[in-house]
Amino acid sequence: MSDFFEELKRRHQLAAANAYPATSAVSDFANNLINWLFPEHTGQVMADPVLLEQYGRQLEIQLELLLQPMQRQLPDTAGAISQSFMGRVPVIYDELTKDAEAILQGDPAATCLYEVIRAYPGFYAIAFYRVAHALHELHIPLLPRMITELAHARTGIDIHPGAVIAPWCCIDHGTGVVIGETTVIGQHVKLYQGVTLGALSIEKSMALSKRHPTIEDHVVIYAGATILGGETIIGHHSVIGGNVWLIRSVEPFSRIYYKAENKFSESNHE
Ligand SMILES: CC(=O)OC[C@H](N)C(=O)O
């Protein structure tokens, strides 16, 4: 048994050396930031412009404090990275405003923007993804993945922070959506639940190559479709039907549907 406790001691020492922030601190930062941009997220409103500005500065400090223990793994000082990140926040805001509008326009069941921001899993997931993606672009390790996993746990939508997703992204329902690390998605793309944008080969040696598909502008992908491969391009204005399995490119304006053989027959036993 003492060998076992030695092993645990070694593991705890290694984990301490990594010095990543607690998951709760990362969650607080991401939620505070999203709530600052979109008070509809929780309903906590800050009407005073002075407080709004001060809060922006507080968020920068909050991020700097998260990053400080990881300093050795960062390409620049924690302070400089936090400042660069905050400089990107207006772009995140602009893109998320467009995403919320796309969800409202794309879902007949959505009644208003407030509802989309407060209650739609598609908005929740894309909001956490856009924050994580900005941190990923600043070469911050692990933190971006922790942030997208907060949304994954809550919504069932798994978006890798490395994916590149243009604005006006509408993920409706969303449960079971998987968007891999090297996926590229154009503007005005609509995805339904259970869509996988995945890798054709999961060889470890493929780690640095483009493994996931490119989805051009104005594509709709219905529930349960699986689109795989880094060379697979779905041409703009295409529609991919439910449950389609696709490992090749399709031209713009394609219509691809799954045609199931009807293997079931009805019988009427007395
Ligand atoms: C989404 C997906 O295909 O993932 C497979 C593997 N994690 C990879 O990134 O290649």
Automatic annotation (TrEMBL):
InterPro entries: LbH_SAT, Ser_AcTrfase_N_sf, Trimer_LpxA-like_sf
GO biological process, one term: amino acid biosynthetic process
SUPFAM superfamilies: Trimeric LpxA-like enzymes
Keywords assigned: Acyltransferase, Amino-acid biosynthesis, Transferase
GO function terms (MF aspect): acyltransferase activity
Classification via PANTHER family: SERINE ACETYLTRANSFERASE
Protein name in UniProt: Serine acetyltransferase
Classification of source organism: Bacteria, Pseudomonadati, Bacteroidota, Chitinophagia, Chitinophagales
